[in-house]
Structures are given as C-alpha cells and as structure tokens.
Amino acid sequence: MPNLSTKWLKKSPWIYHVGTGGCNNCDIEILDCLTPRFDVERFGIKLVVSPRHADVLLVSGPVSYHIKSRLQEVYRQVPKPCVVACLGACACSMGIFKDAYSVAGPVDKVIKEIDPNAIFVYVPGCPPKPETMIMGLVKALQKI
Amino acid sequence: MDNLFLYVIAFLIFPGFLFTSSFGLIVSWIDRKVSALIQWRVGPPFFQPFYDLLKLWHKELIIPATAKKNGFILAPLLGISSVTLLATILGIINLNPEYQFIGDIIVILYLMIIPPLSIVWGGFTSGNPFGALGASREIKLMMGYELPFILAIVTVFFKVGSISLGEIIQYQHVHGVMLNLPSMIVAFIVSILCLQAKLAQVPFDISEAECEIMEGPFIEYSGPLLAVYKLMQSMLQVVFPWFLISIFWGGTSFQGWGILWAVLKYIFIITLVILIKNTNPRIRIDQAVKFFWGWVTLVALIAMILMFMGY
Ligand code: SF4
Known about the structure:
heterodimer, A: 144 residues, alpha/beta, Rossmann fold, five-stranded parallel beta sheet, 6 helices, 7 strands, 40% helix, B: mainly alpha, globular
C-alpha cells in the first residue's frame, strides 16, 4: 500500500506552510513560486490552508521554543504519508540563529522527537531561490 | 426486473456516477487551466484532478476526537449519492422526455439542496469552530440564493403550465427554446448568478473562504472523505449547468449533432462561470444576502412580470 500512495503523492503534493520563527524572507520567496514566472501548479503543487489536506509540510525558520510544541502538533495533524520540507538555512541547520538563546533546534530534530521515521527534504539557501525550491521539492519527491 | 437492471446501470454508469464524475473532473481541469491562462500561468497537466483524487484516496483518514463520528462520515456520502441521483434523473429525462413522473422538477429542486446541506452537516459535525462558522455561512447563503432561484424557475413553470421537466423540454421542442423570449433571458441571468453561488465559486465562496476561515466546513476532512467532497463538487459543476440547459435552453439530445450542440451549450455556461470567478473578489456574507434578496430578487420579479405581460 505505501508504494501506491507515494506514487500519487509525487504527482500532486499539496503544501501547508508553517512559519517557525524565521526572518520572513523565506516565506516571501514561497509566494514567488506561485507567480506566473515560476507557477508551481505545473507540477500539481498547491498551497492548502489546513494541515489536514497537506502532503508536504513546508517549514521555514529555526524552531523557537514557543513554536516547538505547535510544530509538533501540526505534524501530528497531517495525514500520513507526508513529507517535511525544511526550507532555508535556518530550518536545515538553524543558520544564523545557531546557539541563540531562544531556539529549540533545527526542524528535523524537533520532528524526530515525535516521529523517528519522518521523511525530510532539505532546501538550503538564505533564502533559497524559487528555482532551487522547486528543484529541491521535485527531486526529493522523485526519490521517495 | 429488466427495468431495475437498467436503472442500476443508469445510476452507476451513464448518466449517473461514472459519466458525471469523469466529466466533472475534466471540467475541473478546464476550470484550473483557464484560470491559469487568465493569470498568465501555464496551469496543471490534464490528469491533475485525477492524480489529486487518487492521492487523497490513498491517504490516511483522520477523524478528530471532537467530531461526531457518524455524521462526519455520512455527510460526504449523502452529498455524493444525492448528486448521482440528480444526474441520473436529469439524464434519463433528457434522453427520453416522454419518461417523467409528476412533479419531478420539485424532486430535482430538493435534491439540489442536499449537497449544500451535506456540507453544512459535515461542517457542524467536524467539531471545529471554523467548520461551524463556514457551515453557518453556507446556510445563510442558501437562504439568500434559493429565493431568486426558485422565482426564476417558477417563471418557466407558469410559461409552460407544467411542473414536469419532460414537458418543459417537449414544450421547447415545439415552441422553440425558452431563451428566445426576453423575460426568459432575464430569468436565465438570475439563475446564472444563483448558479455561481450554488457552485461556491469565487464571489460567493464565502463558506469556504480559504484565507479567512480555512476552507470552513472542509477544514477537518482528510484523505478519502475529502476526496468524496472534491468529487461531489466537480460533479455539481456538471449537474447544475445541465439543469439550467434543460430548463431554459431546450435540453440536450444525444443523437447526431445534438451531442456537439449540447457540449457547446455546456461550455458556454461553464465559461461564464469561470470568467465571473476570475474577475471578481469575494464578498462578505451580509453583502451576498443583501445582493440576492435585493437586486437579484427584484430582477427575478421583473422577469416574472415580463412573462405575464407576454414577452
Ligand atoms: S534561511 Fe535566511 S532568509 Fe530564510 S528565514 Fe532563515 S535567515 Fe531568513
């Protein structure tokens, strides 16, 4: 069964965007992907508004202590199978926020606390270009 | 026994479930593609709605702890079965206008109310405040558009002197289509506006406004049940315009060039819907109710008066 479900998941990844305390620059770049120039709908990618509809959790920003439990809650709300995409240097490795007093850790560490088998996609950059984002997501989805 | 078998075929395959759902998915692709072209984008590939549906079908189904389980599961199923029944009745009467039962149009009008009601039911049982908010907006919107819609349809009843869809279609075969009359054009415009609200398309997608209440009634639905709702909505996109065609535009015949003509009529209506959708911002619920009870009802009354004056 999992094979079949991921087969279709590649064709229509619906994205739910979670901001976890980044500098908001990554979030703005996400909106660029929806513009006519990049048009992610070509790949069936769609921004959805409820975590219940999502296949990909697009997380931007280091996880601050405040948002940590919320991120974990949102991850629990997403129907499986799902992919967590870490967007930007912050989400991948905490970036410029490393060793800051208020951050709980990079996204993968926080999510692995509740689900060790979660699937991750890393898109580095500060902020990543829209082309990079699309390429990272498409490539990663092919590998699943 | 033979008849029963034919009815089952009609319900499951043509013009019921299989036909309406696959046609509806193609239409929802057209909808997305045309919207993309209007915004200078490329748009999704042809099979995108099918991929979406298959993917949703294979995902996990989550039933929230606060939801009322039975209602939550039954609501989408009720909606989709009523749309299928609607398509079956419409299709059979269009294929053979002789086949009818008294007051079939009343049954059709009631069946058309059930899909929005199922959305309301799903929203309230989901146990989510946004779901309940969306559901209550849906009820208000329904109260708004049903009045002018029924008025517009009743105009046709008085003209034909019958409340049976078969007779309305036969009348149009004999006397020419309804849209030849000025009063009927006015009534048709009213019902196009109501159609926009019935299909929950943009100026009236108040109940599922994604930026304010996050898809409202659908917020808690995931996986297969969300797929059922999506399928129901794309089937509605086929059935409601088809009903308007049957009432105002001489119905559809499936012989010879009739098929092409039927498809052209359908494309005309659905293009109108897509254009209205892409050129208007969403309005508030109070504005929508005022709009429908004010201007639209007034125009529907004018259509009725024109009809009684013989235009
Ligand atoms: S990766 Fe860079 S641009 Fe993105 S949120 Fe972090 S600091 Fe901002």
